[in-house]
């Protein structure tokens, strides 16, 4: 089965485009994390080039792509971007070596989600028209690589700004649906943090079902009254990307794997979530950060093979936070060096 490398465009010192309160690097990260979570749920193997706000130089970014699943035609490289420059609508750029099937599927699904769409296209390097213009396509030579521009964050005509701000999950879901169809995986799992209102449902019954409160439901969905209509789509769980304290259980997760991921013990995880058993259901949201220990700094001793990036990942923080906390002048570490962990 094809595997997917999800690339969150820009990051760190490179913010990408900025306008109307939208920062490209932040939105591409949220979209990429959303897609990763959904591909996990659908059983499609995937990885992120970055899952925090770090700087990736082009060479570094390409190496991350090629070093994960290799450089074969069974690897899809999906680079997520937000456009700027005064247009409106989504577009997909695909590599010279590839056909337009996946690009067209993505654009079609974006259109189904209400986004204006422009076109799918290829772009050549002016100095050598046999090569792709964009390095992410040019330097990932045997993979199936695309750049998705979800809309223009500085659009003045279309609905792009509103969709990017308030409906980016739906735009990301469009890509998920297109990938599932292209890869040949059943697209039948509703996003775990959405629920479609059924006959007989009330805000109270839905809140109970999803382990949340009526107030939170109203807040997440900008509801001004308690009235619901059948078929209405409600966000029922806070998105992991908006709230780092929660994690939504995915297929294949265990208490042990989640505890490990968030640097907790299984007992701590059970305690902060009042769990009586070890059984988890997919879509359940778990508190994964113990508020009491949020500001607690622990000390980590650098081991052979560690680098700032791997340590940041391990402790669910960022390279810049580590560097700042430890007053690091460079990213070079020495074995045995003690680092404060936020
Ligand atoms: Zn960009």
SSE arrangement:
Blueprint: E1 3-8, E2 18-19, E3 22-23, H1 24-42, E4 46-48, H2 58-69, E5 75-83, E6 90-94, H3 101-112, E7 117-121, E8 124-125, E9 128-132, H4 135-138, E10 144-152, H5 160-166, H6 168-183, E11 194-196, H7 203-209, H8 214-220, E12 233-235, E13 246-248, H9 255-261, H10 266-272, E14 285-287, E15 298-301, H11 308-314, H12 319-325, E16 338-341
Parallel strand pairs: 1-4, 1-5, 5-10, 6-7
Antiparallel strand pairs: 2-3, 6-10, 8-9, 11-12, 13-14, 15-16
Helix pairs in contact: 1-6, 3-6, 7-8, 9-10, 11-12
Bound molecules: zinc ion (ZN).
Structure, briefly:
The protein has 342 residues and is an alpha/beta fold. The protein has helices spanning 24-42, 58-69, 101-112, 135-138, 160-166, 168-183, 203-209, 214-220, 255-261, 266-272, 308-314, 319-325; strands spanning 3-8, 18-19, 22-23, 46-48, 75-83, 90-94, 117-121, 124-125, 128-132, 144-152, 194-196, 233-235, 246-248, 285-287, 298-301, 338-341. It has a six-stranded mixed sheet with strand order 4-1-5-10-6-7, sandwiched between helices. Strands 2-3 form a two-stranded antiparallel ribbon.
Structure description:
With 342 residues, this protein is of the alpha/beta class. It has three domains: 3-183, Zn-dependent exopeptidases (Aminopeptidase), CATH 3.40.630; 194-290, Roll (Membrane-bound Lytic Murein Transglycosylase D, Chain A), CATH 3.10.350; 297-341, Roll (Membrane-bound Lytic Murein Transglycosylase D, Chain A), CATH 3.10.350. It has twelve helices and 16 strands. Strands 4-1-5-10-6-7 form a six-stranded mixed β-sheet, with helices on both faces. Strands 2-3 form a two-stranded antiparallel sheet. It has a two-stranded antiparallel sheet with strand order 8-9. The longest helix is centred in the N-terminal third of the chain and has 19 residues, at 24-42. Bound molecules: zinc ion. Zinc ion is lined by residues 9-10, 16, 24, 81. The site of zinc ion has 5 residues, from loops.
């Amino acid at each position: 089965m094809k595997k997917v490398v999800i690339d969150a465009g820009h990051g760190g010192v490179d913010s990408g485009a900025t306008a109307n309160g939208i920062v490209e690097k932040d939105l591409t990260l949220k979209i990429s994390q959303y897609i990763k979570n959904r591909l996990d749920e659908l059983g499609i193997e995937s990885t992120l080039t970055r899952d925090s706000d770090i700087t990736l130089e082009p060479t570094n970014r390409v190496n991350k792509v090629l070093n994960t699943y290799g450089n074969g035609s069974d690897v899809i490289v999906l680079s997520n971007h937000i456009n700027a420059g005064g247009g409106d609508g989504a577009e997909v750029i695909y590599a010279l070596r590839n056909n337009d099937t996946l690009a067209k599927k993505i654009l079609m699904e974006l259109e189904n989600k209400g986004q204006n769409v422009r076109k799918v296209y290829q772009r050549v390097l002016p100095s050598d028209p046999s090569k792709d213009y964009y390095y992410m396509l040019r330097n990932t030579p045997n993979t199936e690589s695309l750049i998705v521009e979800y809309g223009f964050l500085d659009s003045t005509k279309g609905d792009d700004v509103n969709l990017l701000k308030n409906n980016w999950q739906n735009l990301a879901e469009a890509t998920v649906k297109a990938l599932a169809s292209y890869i040949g995986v059943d697209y039948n799992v509703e996003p775990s943090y959405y629920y479609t209102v059924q006959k007989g449902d009330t805000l109270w019954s839905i809140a109970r079902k999803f382990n949340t409160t009526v107030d939170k439901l109203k807040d997440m969905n900008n509801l001004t009254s308690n009235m619901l209509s059948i078929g209405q789509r409600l966000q029922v769980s806070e998105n992991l990307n908006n709230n780092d304290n929660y994690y939504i259980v995915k297929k294949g997760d265990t208490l042990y794997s989640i505890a490990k991921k968030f640097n907790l013990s299984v007992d701590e995880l059970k305690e902060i979530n009042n769990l009586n058993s070890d059984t988890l259901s997919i879509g359940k949201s778990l508190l994964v950060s113990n508020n009491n220990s949020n500001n607690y700094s622990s000390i980590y001793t650098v081991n052979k093979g560690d680098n700032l990036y791997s340590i940041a990942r391990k402790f669910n923080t960022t390279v810049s936070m580590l560097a700042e906390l430890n007053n690091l002048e460079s990213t070079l570490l020495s074995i045995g060096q003690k680092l404060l962990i936020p």
